[in-house]
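Changelog note: in this version the structure field was regenerated for every chain. One regenerated record is shown below for reference.
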Amino acid sequence: MPKTPTVHFEAASTLAVVVSSNEPLLFLSDDQKVIAASASFCRAFEVDPATVPGKRLSELGNGEWAMPKLASLLKATVSGSAQIEAYEIDFKRPKQKTRNLVVNARTLDDGDTDHIRLLLAVTDVTDARAEARLKDDLIRDKAILLQEVQHRVANSLQIIASVLMQSARRVQSEEARGHLHNAHHRVMSIAALQKQLSTSNSGTVELRTYLTQLCQSLGASMIADPNRLSIQVTVDNSAVEADVSVSLGLIVTELVINALKHAFPDERTGTIVIDYRSSGNDWALSVTDNGIGIPAGNDAPKAGLGTGIVEALAKNLKGGIQVSDAGPGTAVKISHQENAGVRTDSSTVA
């Protein structure tokens, strides 16, 4: 007898919480009869609150809650052999849109040890699921559009390169022909960059593969005799954002083209080495050749288009440029240090 008032008090408290809840809740007996339903549940699923108490869950509304799998899970929850957590159901009613619901259920100890009661919480995720599907569709459409743009860009670059080569064959001026050949090499290097980036499935680019394939493309288009000249790439396991990789790739392109044009005259043999290393936010890219080096004094070449391109790209990456004697040859190093100022030494990249 002393226990009875406590039982009634605990049950009344649970009923009050359920009825006043802003979330769709059901308070069920162990045989799945409804003890109480929150007002929000009745509003959400168009159930008359006055008809709810005493009905079985399967009898609510027009029978749309008669779900054998849900009933079986609730029975198993009462026995302690299962627990309903984030169980998804399709809630169907005649002439209405199917709704996606997530159901959670747990047993409650309300002081009555003779009967197990269940608290059933229902969350409508229809809109959330629709938004997720829309987002997935947009991502898929964006990927398809990006692939189409990449194909168009690649085709356009090939056309431009072809036009430049045709023009180079027609002009009489050696100087003009040289400029057209330089433009052709730059277009082809950009095409190689675009090809490498188009194969990246994420927002970052693994530099070792990227720079290796880029230099292979440059070598194939500019080195007639691989036994005389070669390009070597040594890169650590760094990965960078796609826009950073573009800048690094263009810098490498300009410096390699410059070395191939000027460092090995008179059929000299030699090697160009590209090296990249990073530690935290600090990084260093170097392009070194073992050619004739940069002439000094009056023989020093004037800074050309390549110089401006490399300096602009290095500045964009917040990197400094250092040009030094590699003994033999020339070393150009672009580096960034988090706690150091940007320094640019005058260089002569054609």
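Spot check on this record: The helical segments are 4-20, 39-44, 68-79, 126-170, 174-198, 207-222, 242-262, 305-316. The chain has three domains: 4-124, 125-201, 203-350.
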